[in-house]
Amino acid sequence: MNSQNLLKISRQFGAPVYVYDAEKIASQYQRLTNAFQGVGSLRLNYAAKALSNISILRLMNQLGSGLDTVSIQEVKLGLMAGFKPESIIFTPNGVSLEEIEEASALGVQINIDNLSVLEQFGSKHPDVPVCIRINPHVMAGGNSKISVGHIDSKFGISIHQIPHLLRIVDLTKMNINGIHMHTGSDILDIDVFLYASEILFETAKNFKNLEFIDFGSGFKVPYKKGDIETNIEELGKKLTTRFNQFCEDYGKELTLAFEPGKFLVSEAGYFLAKVNVVKQTTSTVFASVDSGFNHLIRPMLYGSSHEISNISNPKGRERYYSVVGYICETDTFGSNRRINEISEGDILCFKNAGAYCFTMSSNYNSRFRPAEVLWHQGKAHLIRERETFDDILRNQVDVKNLFETPKAEVIK
Q: Which residues form the Orn/DAP/Arg decarboxylase 2 N-terminal domain (predicted)?
């Protein structure tokens, strides 16, 4: 999207506002599909947690994607968006058996990541096909908070517990139709990913009725000019060759599955915020925007870098600014960034705001969450209205009568 269209959207819908480019989402989906075109059966399950607006889910369904979900609410959103139950996989962590049974009753693919629930579910529902999430004990991902396949991770069943796992499957006679792993996000070294894949292939040999192998995702996208990213094309060539060889040895063509989230929507997203104050201190020039980590928490939570540009003055001379928000504690989006000269009232654009931005937003400081807009076929479409004060009060129960001072009884 170009700056002029983004400025028009900020004027039409106000700022702050999230904007998503449908064409970019479609091109990322096609890029991933092309990288694995040598596989006989490929399934891309969009990770709903990245951006779960129902209009985005409908777009993914239209593109041919399946859906990766981690909560019963995401399952229900997916069904409302038109996904067929069999195209949805439910991969929760630490949820109750009741939630898993509720998802199973809706007909979606169940993916279990711990022995306790596996035994309970298998004992009660041995005929329901189940996928098993394996922890390959491989450290991968951009940082410790998004690395989920290492030995100390709470995710997945340890490869060292395979004998126990097999005993549960044998005793319950349950049907294991899939094997799954997810090593982490922002994967840079595809050799580490391929190494973890070998562990998954070796584990898969223990199960004779598999229909698919799910390799998770975590593919890194660039966050600034010259930034490194996962080489999807090279990974596609290497993993396709190895997967096809495994299927030949297995004696059956399986489906190769991924669950991309950030890869599909991150670069398609833009977050627009208005500059409230330009503040010069003894050592820093602050550009304070009409937003904060209640809308974009990733820089503070993960140390992630989002490119920031001044779309109101794209040809202005560059100066150094620290871009901060209005939250009442450390709330810095970027320190000493080189940005075209900023004036109060300008609109700043934060790139890579499609994944884990709105979905991790909050009403901290009793602030409203912004609107969401989808740019599709040259037009802007409102897909979520900006919150109002009524939304802040919704579901609150005002017990003001508890604190009223009783009136003194009048003696006549």
A: 24-266
